[in-house]
Amino acid sequence: MWMKTSTMYFFSQLVGVLILSEVVCEWLPETLNLPSSHVTRYLNTFKCEAEKCYNSGSCMYRNVLDTGLCWGYETNCPHHLGYSSAHCPGDHKGWVSSKPQQLQTFLSQADFGFVKQQIQSKTLMCEPTADGESLLECSSYLQFCRGKSLYLDFRDLPARKESFRYKMDVLKKGQIGGKCKLNEYRLQSEATHQSPLQSWAPEMQHFEELPDFINEESQVCDIFINKPTFIMKIDATVNMYHHFCDFFNLYTSLHVNGSHPEMFSRDVNILIWETYAYHSNFGITWSAFTQNPILNLRSFQGKRVCFREVVFPLLPRMIFGLYYNTPIVWGCRESGLFHAFSKFILHRLKIPKRAAIDPVAKPRIKILLLSRNTQYRRILNEKALLDALRSSPRQYSVERVEFTHETDFRHQLRVIQDTDIFIGMHGAGLTHLLFLPDWASVFELYNCGDEHCYADLARLRGVHYQTWTNHTKLKPQDEGHHPSDGGPHAKFTNYSFDTKEFLRIVDLAADHVAKHPAYRHLLSQLPTTNQIKKAYRKLAKELHPDRNQDNTEKASAQFQDLGAAYETLSDPEKRELYDRCGEECVSKEGAGGGGMDPFASFFGDFGFGFGGNGNQGQQEVAKGADIVMDLFVTLEELYSGNFVEITHNKPVLKPAKGTRKCNCRQEMVTRQLGPGRFQMMQQAVCDECPNVKLVNEERVLEVEIEQGMTDGSEQRFTAEGEPHTDGEPGDLRLRIQTAPHSIFERRGDDLYTNVTISLADALAGFELDIEHLDGHKVHIVRDKVTWPGARIRKKGEGMPNYENNNLFGMLYVTFDVQFPKEELSTEVKEKLRELLSQDSINKVYNGLRGF
Ligand SMILES: *[C@@H]1O[C@H](CO)[C@@H](O)[C@H](O)[C@H]1NC(C)=O
Ligand SMILES: *[C@@H]1O[C@H](CO)[C@@H](O)[C@H](O)[C@H]1NC(C)=O
Ligand SMILES: *[C@@H]1O[C@H](CO)[C@@H](O)[C@H](O)[C@H]1NC(C)=O
Ligand SMILES: *[C@@H]1O[C@H](CO)[C@@H](O)[C@H](O)[C@H]1NC(C)=O
């Protein structure tokens, strides 16, 4: 059974109580479907869009409009307002001569500075000289080009029978061009990177000036394409490392082309420069960039095709490009460009963030071991390693996955996004690290001698990286055999690992995660079970059909959806599932049908009449008696708020054999006693009803103890009281009473406590901590003399006020002094007299009357 979207909406309502969800402004077009930290940059770039935001009351981003936040490639974007948080801890070495130079180098090699260089090196290769003419501009070495009104001739393609890719001879002289003034010398001098995935030189070198205007009317165009189009030469689509290099360069190219409000639009074409039909298990990733089908050259063979707007994006194997085997300056990490790419893809593919943890149970660090099902680089003792992790005293939550070409890629991303420590052997699957949360740690179990590949990728993405270092503690199955030359090769065998050493490295990774500020922030932000309950109670009250008389149908539908969402989130197993992989997993499982009515447990059966008289105006119905009960709650619960579960046996009426008299009423009857004599009398008249019997049913009710509630506050559970055979049951009313506490006494919002101190402390001063009701410490320092019965006040350390939980009462601490019980020696007595040098006082008075 699939869950309705409206139910899913309530997930976010319940879990999102504290997490600010990424709200997209109502006025924003779908094209701005971006993470919020990206929207702020976008709005600061396009003032016109920002103004629309400012003028619309519903824009969530109004308060960021004047912050000056930028991406980092704009001409006047200071580093501290840019997107990047790249940094270079420690010393510098290698190519650079100073710390600032080291950071600068990193920014331009691997961050938004790379975009800036591309933008700055763009020059016109073919220049329009009048309105409506064509244009071609490219960055250095023709790594990126952008054209307007371009002509491409694919009439030779049908002659090529074999499907092809990575070809440099798709176009010949004159098969690409436009009406503009070509700078032939400039173009040819940039066309030096002649390799299929390094530059657009193999194509652009054939560019020619054309006599005709290129537009919809042109005779030379068999097809005219109006939609902006990205023409892409892509790497190996079966390999995540390589294929994501394509996506990464496409994302970077959005910024390089930039400078127009539609820069993140999904209404674009992607045309792949090959004649194979595109197929890849990662294919869903395109949907982050386009809503249209992926085209290839087959779509246009035999035709002359003209493009109004076309971009030839950066390529995956450029010299000093990103990220294929590029040397990056030593010591720096956390590229903003990689961070932005990661968040962009996750956002657009709608991968949920880690949502909820129950902090009552200690949050557990989530470990994911990526297992390989290939011929090489298997972990021979995988089970032993997993067992070791599972029995670690650090109580890891451990999962093993195998991602195959059949595993839904969005599912893979959901699992990755919910991982703290990611473990795997060297191989393309480790590219998943791009999508780990910021605090995560990668453990490349063994890098097989290829030490830079994933270490660098992790460094660029800004996640922590570790790998196996002690070669004596790892055993290869054999020396490995390279599939082509047969020689020994570390990548072509299997390995087993020393369990102790393995655990040692994982523990280090866990230390990193636990210390990471983003992880700690996450823990502090996640809603607790109680917060979800609270949110549910509040929403349930608002949405209850009784409260929404003008549209009861809609209200009851919403109400049921809310119930289904709550039911899922309150079931520990489903909750775990939801935490791990979001709405879709729990929806596949199906919701509802559990038989539990979450509403009844908070409000009682039927739920009528909370907060007032729900039955107003209706005719009087017989009602059973209310049951009033005291509910003793601890001061701790009243201090922090809590939900307590109470189980009660509710007598309910069930059909039974036979009949019974019912609806009995008194009626007047007239009886003739004799001629002319009548007697009027009252008589009980009853109907015959099916018989009923009382059966005890066990019910679980959840009572919310709100912060600062006072004794006598009542919570009513409708129809949970005494049954009435001919009417409705009465209500159950629970009255809050504070149970006595061994440390604190409550008077109004104030708390009182007593502390016994020693005589020495009383005279010489002291410091102490009192543990408060929620465990926080109240620190007390005295350097003055403290006499028995002395009282100090601590502001704000009393109980929270019921009406306003942010106000707290006073804490009064009264001291008594424990005098030494043993006899003091004469010598000590002498010393004391001497030290205190106090005269005798001996005042006699009537203390009872206060004289
Ligand atoms: C590239 O940018 C130009 C404006 O600078 C814009 O008109 C064009 O549509 C963009 N191309 C794509 C494919 O987005
Ligand atoms: C590697 O492990 C061996 C065997 O336990 C040990 O003797 C050696 O000191 C370790 N080497 C390093 C560099 O830690
Ligand atoms: C590695 O393990 C796989 C699966 O057990 C096996 O097929 C393969 O032959 C092993 N490779 C080597 C080099 O032993
Ligand atoms: C404890 O403190 C209260 C006031 O807070 C005081 O009335 C009472 O006498 C104290 N008890 C002792 C044993 O000192």
Automatic annotation (TrEMBL):
Region span, Disordered: 707-732
Keyword tags: Signal
Pfam families listed in its UniProt record: DnaJ, DnaJ_C, Glyco_transf_61
Gene Ontology molecular functions: glycosyltransferase activity; misfolded protein binding; unfolded protein binding
Domain J: 501-582
Gene3D superfamilies in alphabetical order: DnaJ domain, Urease metallochaperone UreE, N-terminal domain
Annotated signal sequence range: 1-25
GO CC entries: endoplasmic reticulum
Compositional bias per record (Basic and acidic residues), positions renumbered to this chain: 713-732
InterPro entries associated with the record: DnaJ-B11-like (IPR051736), DnaJ_C (IPR002939), DnaJ_domain (IPR001623), DnaJ_domain_CS (IPR018253), Glyco_transf_61_cat (IPR049625), HSP40/DnaJ_pept-bd (IPR008971), J_dom_sf (IPR036869)
GO biological process terms, semicolon-separated: protein folding
Name used for this protein in its record: EOG090X02IK
Organism: Daphnia dolichocephala
